């Protein structure tokens, strides 16, 4: 909470927009930092034990982990392994400290035992996930460790490699891809396997075409079994067969959850992760007031929400009162809770169409369609991303909108609720009225024709409305 207060103050004093933006990679962003404040932001972060190391460039980025380590002993163990993997794969360079923190420059050549002299061909993303919740969207990432437990205790991981969502409009050499199962490994081999996957991608990845440099393309080029065998050789192990696991959802459980040590955890829905004082809903002030009295931590989720973690029973009522008084616990429908957008305009230089600023009013209209067809409490996993780089993870949604130009999107359908199927393009380069007309017709059919418990994405595939993407390298663009 000391960290949060420092973040809040910097946003208020040193950014143009005055907001804190939670991201779907469990980080936060400041927008509108003047050049003179770039070094001070790094120094502020360092002063409270935070940094921006490995948030860009061709290396392993921050490791995502199922959000709250205090929810159970299994969550705590998985979180510790996420930290170990992150620390093991971090770059060893001193350049960050020398440039931003004014530490003394040492006239030596940085040695990078994992990244080497060339670093990686492209950025690399890693997750640790605890079934049955796929809240971190593992299939969007290069390397994924799926926690396997026995009697509530972590014993090892299933490894999945080669997920990734970024494409380029019209470039059929690019495609979104789900991660492939490699096998099971006991805990003691985790770091060796993580290093082996990264170094294999470092040495085998495409360095002549950045559009085809991610791990997903390397897997397709050399073959899954060849890549897997090289990882086994480098790690000095043989993967065991994949152990059973199942995902049932990927949303956050909004509201109070009781965890270990009799502590409570409050997950707050933050629409699109944007923390700001809105008229009648002073979210930023409310969180600051909570931070001033809270004795635990704040945890960012991969759905752009915030967990007030480790609340003792004695503080629960006070924190809930503050949250309610500041609009942090306003009731929202399931559709809004399951909708997400990237930042896009006005602060992302890659933006092609609106995303964050478009989604709230668009969700109103989708909620009206659900109401019209008699299913107001249903939800469809819906994502909007402002460009084909895919930060909004639209390529794992049941309804995915991918920005093509101002006011125009490619509409993708046929993903599923648990995030294990890539949606196919249904209509190209269409505006909001056409999108809503299509959704009105299809949601109407879903409401009448669906089977018990059948999600919208599964229905569109079963009903023959859209063909499922089964082999992205070959059928994504068909």
Question: In terms of topology, how is this protein built?
Answer:
Blueprint: H1 2-14, E1 20-22, E2 28-29, H2 38-47, E3 64-65, H3 73-89, H4 95-100, E4 126-129, E5 143-150, E6 153-161, E7 180-186, H5 190-204, H6 215-222, H7 224-235, E8 255-258, E9 264-268, E10 274-275, E11 277-278, E12 281-282, H8 283-293, E13 297-300, E14 306-311, H9 313-325, H10 334-337, E15 339-341, H11 359-372, E16 382-385, E17 399-405, E18 408-413, E19 424-431, H12 432-449, H13 456-462, H14 472-475
Parallel strand pairs: 3-4, 4-5, 15-16, 16-17
Antiparallel strand pairs: 1-2, 1-10, 5-6, 6-7, 8-9, 9-14, 11-12, 13-14, 17-18, 18-19
Helix pairs in contact: 1-8, 3-5, 5-7, 6-7, 8-9, 11-12
Domain Nitrite/Sulfite reductase ferredoxin-like: 2-47, 261-320
Family: Belongs to the nitrite and sulfite reductase 4Fe-4S domain family.
GO biological process, one term: cysteine biosynthetic process
Terminal Cα span: 50 Å
Query: Major sheet: size, sense and barrel closure?
Result: 5 strands, mixed
- Can you tell me the CATH topology of the largest domain? Sulfite Reductase Hemoprotein, domain 1
CATH architecture level-2 label of the largest domain: 2-Layer Sandwich
Number of domains: 3
What's the CATH class of the largest domain, please?
Alpha Beta
GO biological process, one term: cysteine biosynthetic process
Organism: Salmonella typhimurium
Pathway: Sulfur metabolism; hydrogen sulfide biosynthesis; hydrogen sulfide from sulfite (NADPH route): step 1/1
EC number: 1.8.1.2
